[in-house]
Amino acid sequence: MPKDLQLLEEVISNALGEIAVDLVDLELRQGTLTVTVSRFDGLDLDSLTQASRLVSDLLDANEALAPEGHYELEVSSPGLERRLRRPAHFRQAIGESISVRTRAGVVGDRRFEGTLVGAGETAIVVERDGTEREVAYGQIDRAHLVFDWRAALAADSRDRGATGGAVEAQDPDDAELVDEIGESVSEDFAADEIVTEEADGHEIDAAGSTSREMRR
User: Fold this and answer.
1) Residue 204 near residue 195 (C-beta atoms within 8 A)
2) C-beta of residue 96 within 8 angstroms of C-beta of residue 83
3) Are 181 and 21 in contact (CB under 8 A)?
4) What is the dihedral of CA 215, 56, 66, 207, to 10 degrees?
5) Residue ranges of the domains in the chain?
6) What is the CATH architecture of 3-79+191-215?
7) Class of domain 87-145
8) Alpha-carbon dihedral angle through residues 189, 88, 111, 194, given to the nearest 10 degrees
9) CA distances from 136 to 109, 132, 212 (A)
10) What strands lie across the sheet with 22-29, from one edge to the other?
11) With helix as H, strand as E and coil as C, how does 49-106 read?
């Protein structure tokens, strides 16, 4: 990470800490400054809006640290299939299912999924079907957690059954839809972009997980 972004990350992290919000990640990519935030008890719409306005004000007050030219500020929660970019992100995800896409030229499958069983200083170890694969951080193009949609639906059905709720047999079409949803989220790494609220230039998506603001 460039030094100016490191300094901006420190400034934003300290400010967010004052409203009990944690900075998970900061990334400048293709004209978008993405600030990923979380809170121990979860982020609601008001908290996300507060964090977004705080970051926006900080950028106004620290223009020397802000990206040059036109850019989009995006403040969002990590989501179920949050991206993994740093060694600390991977270490926190040990034992979880992840999806990895390696850089061009790396030996082996470029896209694969498995259980993250190790995350050291220089590489991660992913287990799949009894075989472990080590991948250096520098060889990873993109990586993210994998949420098991089918297992979540099954657990929800069991919970409803245990409490006396009606449980219907899963329709094959529903199962296919779940797979399609999972594949879509895994491929795009994105939240729903339907805007439901706009205030002071901040757009909040339908899921209440992302705030966007065009800046110059």
Assistant:
1) yes
2) no
3) no
4) -70
5) 3-79+191-215, 87-145, 149-186
6) 2-Layer Sandwich (3.30)
7) mainly beta
8) 0
9) 14, 13, 33
10) 22-29, 32-38, 71-76, 210-215, 202-205, 195-199
11) HHHHHHHHHHHHHCCCCCCCCCEEEEEECCCCCCECCCHHHHHHCCCCEEEEEECCCC
Q: State CA 5 to chain mean position distance.
A: 19
Distance, CA of 208 to CA of 170 (rounded, Å): 29
Evaluate whether 204 touches 44 at the Cβ level (below 8 Å).
no
pLDDT at 116: 97
Rounded CA-CA distance 212/13 in Å is 19
Question: What are the per-10-residue average pLDDT scores of the chain (216 residues)?
Answer: 78 93 89 89 86 93 86 87 87 94 95 96 96 96 86 68 54 48 39 36 54 66
On whether the CB atoms of residues 191 and 205 are closer than 8 A, the answer is: yes
Per-residue pLDDT at 215: 66
Q: Phi and psi dihedrals of 184, rounded to 5?
A: -65, -45
Helices (H), the chain: 3-17, 45-61, 87-92, 149-162, 172-188
Place of tokens 């908290």: 47
Alpha carbons 178 and 163: distance in angstroms, whole number: 24
Nearest to 199 by CA among 45, 37, 61: 45
